[in-house]
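Input (Arginine decarboxylase):
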Amino acid sequence: MQGLFIMKATLTGSGWSDRMPTPLWEALVRHVAARPVPWHVPGHKMGRGAPPDLIRWLGAGLKLDLTELPGLDDLHQPEGPIAEAQVLVAQTFGADESFFLVGGSTVGNIAMLLATCEPGETVLIARNVHRSVISGLMLAGASALVVAPDWEYDLGVPGGIRVETVARILGAHPEIRTVLVTSPTYHGVCSDLASLAEEVHRRGGLLLVDEAHGGHFPFVQGSPPGALASGADAVVQSWHKTMGSLTQSAVLHLRGNRVDRQRIRESLATVQSSSPSYLLMASLDLARQWMQNEGGRRLDSVVQTLAQVREELDAVPGVDVLTAERARRAGGVGLDPARLTLGVVGSRGTGIEWGEALRRRGIWPELEEPTAVTFVAGPGDDSRIIGRLVKGLQDVAMEIGGVGEPAEGRRGSRVFPGTEAAEWAALLQELWHSEEGQDLIRPRLARKVRWVPLGKALGLQAARAVIPYPPGIPMLLPGERIRPLHNELIRMGRSMGVRLVGMPSDEEVVAVTEEGRE
Ligand SMILES: Cc1ncc(COP(=O)(O)O)c(C=O)c1O
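Output:
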């Protein structure tokens, strides 16, 4: 691995230099500038043979859609510009090794589990993990116990994972070595990863973190500490979500020697394409440099403007803003400052209705759920765009209206009794807590599947997950016995317009296994 850049040489006294190298990007541009005549794949031959509409929209970018040519390295055995670009990522994030992902954090989560679990092993997973974690367990032949996140009762959204709860479950299950949590959550709540890492390591275990939504933390002031800095052993980050790289591009970082690096490489080679997109990989190379410089500065300033409008939005009738204070009360240690989650259980509409009303005004949220709406800020936003969001929200609040004063509820929190959305959130929380430390989840790919009307599925074993999407957190897990709580949540979700992946949208049927055969 010769010619690797040593990033320290490029550091200036004030931080990262504006001239950080982008080795993969530069190698691609050099290749194109030499005007090669391609007699190799991809068959569009640097765009010349691509469909006209692709040429019209992607233009010169198609020239960079190249493959493993001499000088352009190989993701699965990197020794040139890909290796150099990955080293720069590792140095920037304080990892011992970082890997480019071209299948999103999805493949990162799967590879982390494939590399760290033996078949039959039990892993402790947060109940609010993304579906890719369930896929990883399935492929690794592993099982899981779940730990439920705390709950933010004002908004009806999940909070952080408490270290005491993890310690209690690990105490009762000393056979568990691996713990996997999501932090930040889709709503931006960060768990106390430093304490979790300490607890897990004290017991000789591994902490894997799905930090899909938190890649930008090192570049934005006021962000909670990132997973690597907190001591996690392996971390995945969807850079396409928050760092400006192309959709599907992501990164997996390793720190320390608890995770076998060779097994990670093998796992990644198993789940990633043998023709990884150079556009995706080059976008990762550029995104790192961008966030270290102008992109990071811009996001920082967007976040400051967003902080100013949080209070303004909290005053909108029917709206509760998810604040760092609320995140801390809900078992977290902080909140992603680039994420804005608004609870709307105090209004006359669900989060899904808020989303529709906003879209009618040209504003497209990231996530709409019965109780809340979530927005993702990026380096391309500015005070004008944020102002438009605030105005849109104020207009929607007038259109939808509030339901008056909340009643005092559980644990001194405020609840809005009688709204279907609040009821949904309460049931979801009940479901997750009822599963905590109890049932062993053994997700397996069902061989034979029957579709059964929901009303007749009670007690049967689910063959497929049922997943509100986004956020992609399974409500019903494959292999789970279907309970009345599942039925109620599925029915309510459908009636409120939640998109449920894993069941047809026009029929109330769920997939179950052929009893006794699985
Ligand atoms: C918490 C979490 N983890 C993993 C993923 C999967 O990431 P990707 O879309 O990059 O594959 C998502 C996607 O939304 C997610 O929310």
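Residues 104-106, 109, 130, 132, 182, 186, 210, 212, 238, 250, 470-472 surround pyridoxal-5'-phosphate (CB under 6 Å).
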